[in-house]
Amino acid sequence: MFTGIVAAVGRIETIKPLGGDAQAGVRLTVRAGALDLSDVAIGDSIAIQGACMTVVAKTADAFDVDVSRESLNRTVGLAAPGDVNLEKALTAHERLGGHIVSGHVDGLGTVTRFAPVGESHELRVLAPADIARYLAYKGSVTVNGVSLTVNSVEDRDDGCEFSINLIPHTVEVTTLNQLATGSKVNLEIDLIARYVERMLASSQDGYKSLK
């Protein structure tokens, strides 16, 4: 589990295919930046751009993860060298500064606006229709691994557009400052919203499959 509070901005330095066919995954070597790896062991989880990955090798200032083709197909920011948001898995004694984040990307959003508003920035994202019902005014959402609060929600024929106010600190210490209109972003909806929907469906209609 994670909190969506980015600990450091790292950088994907190398990408090596794990096989010779189109379905093969890749091994990433990630330079950790300011992320302290001294307490990270092989098998530990680190969120990269909001996607939970398992450390398979490490040095003092870098680590490797294996990314399946399925994960590559369902996320952005993991298939090419570049800056990435990093967060180590939550431990029981730490503050839950953001919200409960699993590191499982639910869908890809498209940035429709990223522009200064006063001292802050407004970020607007168009989310796919299948996750629109999980987005609510003043609710939580994770964008590229960053825990954020939804300021407005507008349902559209092609999905759901939501807006977020980014304070200067968030823009400064995450990769969100690299976004532009048209950028794709990893989205994870609030885990509690998913359980609420499941409980309501089971109480009203009996247990059924929800996708």
Q: Please, could you describe this protein's structure?
A:
The chain is mainly β and 211 residues long. The protein has two domains: 8-88, Elongation Factor Tu (Ef-tu), domain 3, CATH 2.40.30.20; 107-200, Elongation Factor Tu (Ef-tu), domain 3 (Beta Barrel). It has helices spanning 69-74, 168-173, 191-205; strands at residues 8-17, 26-31, 45-48, 51-58, 62-67, 82-88, 107-117, 120-127, 140-143, 146-149, 152-156, 159-166, 184-189. The strands form two sheets. It has a seven-stranded antiparallel beta sheet. Strands 1-2-5-4-3-6 form a six-stranded antiparallel barrel. A hairpin with a 3-residue loop joins strand 4 (51-58) and strand 5. The chain is globular and about 45 Å long.
Order of helices and strands: EEEEEHEEEEEEEHEH
Shape: globular
Distance between the termini: 21 Å
Low-confidence stretches: none
Quick overview:
With 211 residues, the protein is mainly β. It has helices at residues 69-74, 168-173, 191-205; strands at 8-17, 26-31, 45-48, 51-58, 62-67, 82-88, 107-117, 120-127, 140-143, 146-149, 152-156, 159-166, 184-189. The model has no long low-confidence stretch (mean pLDDT 93).
How are the SSEs placed, and which strands pair?
Layout: E1 8-17, E2 26-31, E3 45-48, E4 51-58, E5 62-67, H1 69-74, E6 82-88, E7 107-117, E8 120-127, E9 140-143, E10 146-149, E11 152-156, E12 159-166, H2 168-173, E13 184-189, H3 191-205
Antiparallel strand pairs: 1-2, 1-6, 2-5, 3-4, 3-6, 4-5, 7-8, 7-13, 8-12, 9-10, 9-13, 11-12
Which short descriptors sum up this protein?
6-stranded antiparallel barrel; 211 residues; 7-stranded antiparallel β-sheet; Elongation Factor Tu (Ef-tu), domain 3; 13 strands; 3 helices
